[in-house]
Amino acid sequence: MALVLMFALVLGQAALLLSAWVVAIRHFAFGPIYDGGLVLAALIVITGLTPWLWKTARAFFRDNSMKLADDVEGEIIFTPADGPRPGLLPSEAILVRDVRRLADKAGLYAPPAVGIIEGEDFEACVHGRWRGGDTLYVSRAALHVLLGDDLTGLVAHEIAHVARRDRLSTELLIAASEGVLAAPRFMARLVRWWLSLGLVAVILGLVIGLDIVDQADAVELAGAAAFYAALLAAPWLVSTLYWLVGVGVLRHLEFEADRLAVHLTSRDVVLGSLKAIAAAFPDAEDKEPSWLDPHPTLRELIDHLEAMPPTDE
Predict the structure, then answer these.
(1) With left for phi above 0 and alpha for psi between -120 and 50, is residue 287 left, alpha or beta?
(2) Could you list the residue range(s) of the whole structural domain that residue 34 is in?
(3) Overall domain count for the chain
(4) b or e along 3-42 (b: 16 or more beta carbons within 10 Å of the residue's beta carbon)?
(5) Nearest-CA neighbor of 6 among 221, 207, 167?
(6) Each residue of 93-105: pLDDT tens digit?
(7) pLDDT over 60 (residue 42)
(8) Nearest to 311 by CA among 245, 261, 247, 277
(9) Which residues in the chain belong to E strands, given as ranges?
């Protein structure tokens, strides 16, 4: 559902941009057939959203690998095309086995590639947005600590992200947020100085002329001040609102991934995996739970699973 909503939002913004181009071209090609305010709004949308659409399209279709950051060392040990790398360590072979088994159980066309992140910190993530380009990464430290069902529970959570296309949902959420904010940001840059100076002038006028102007003029000036303040605050308000919505969506993706992981294994397996991670990597749980955090804490994930009814193995 989240993926459908994100697609709809991005496509809606693209449709809005296309409509703005049509309005502007028709207005200037065939005469003043639209209201001036509508044409101005269309030009603002064109200026704000056209670079966004170009940037989004390039990002989505130029690179599907979603490689690790340059400062993170990762090694691919399995790909669906080539199979396991020769000479796998026993823990690596178990990881690849779990990935292939759970991917098949989740109904994936092919299992994701598997990579190992070197380092002493806990890390587990999925990179890649389109089917066939997924890579599941697990840190070497996690591989050393999580054994048996604990590792299976971790793999099930990441496979759930692949099956639900959560990485694509996240990418679309980011793209949609950039599109929503494109026009307000453009307007903020365009009118920042004269709006700010105008607001200062209005406030000074209100203060100086408080005892001079009559009540009607004071109300009119106060209305102008409120209008300027609203224009200045609009980009920030839109940004804050969209950020809150995005946080809620990202948190929802994590909880739903655990639900699917439970379906692939059992509640006890996924719950035991989270508790093992919390015990082995206390630094991974060094923050207080907050609904403003886009990623739930381990404690929140554990509480969510404990509230679920037990399942059969």
Answers:
(1) beta
(2) 1-62
(3) 1
(4) beebeebbeebbeebeebeebbeebeeeeeebeeeebebb
(5) 167
(6) 999 999 999 999 9
(7) yes
(8) 261
(9) 74-79, 83-84, 113-117, 124-127, 135-139
DSSP letters for 27-55 = HHHS-S-S-HHHHHHHHHHHHHHHHHHHH
Per-residue pLDDT at 213 exceeds 80: no
Residue at 51 is within a domain = yes
Rounded distance, CA 308 to CA 313, Å? Answer: 15
Three-class DSSP category at 83: strand
* Any domain includes 101: no
Q: What is the DSSP string of 157-219?
A: HHHHHHHHTHHHHHHHHHHHHHHHHHHHHHHHHHHHHHHHHHHHHHHHHHHHTTTTS-HHHHH
pLDDT band at 26 (very low <50, low <70, confident <90, very high): confident
The token duo for 199 is: 């607001």
CA-CA-CA-CA dihedral for 27, 32, 33, 34, to nearest 10: 80
Q: Do 264 and 159 contact (CB within 8 A), yes or no?
A: yes
Are 138 and 102 a contacting pair, CB within 8 Å?
A: no
Instruction: Give me the sign of the Cα torsion angle 312, 249, 71, 284.
Output: negative
What are the backbone dihedrals phi and psi of residue 142, each rounded to the nearest 5 degrees, phi first? -65, -35
Token pair, residue 146, equals 């999580």
> Beta strand 135-139 with 113-117: parallel, antiparallel or unpaired?
parallel
Q: What is the separation of C-alpha 257 from the centre of its chain, rounded to a whole number of angstroms?
A: 15
Block residue for tokens 């890390």: 123
Is 30 a domain residue?
A: yes
Is 148 within a domain? no
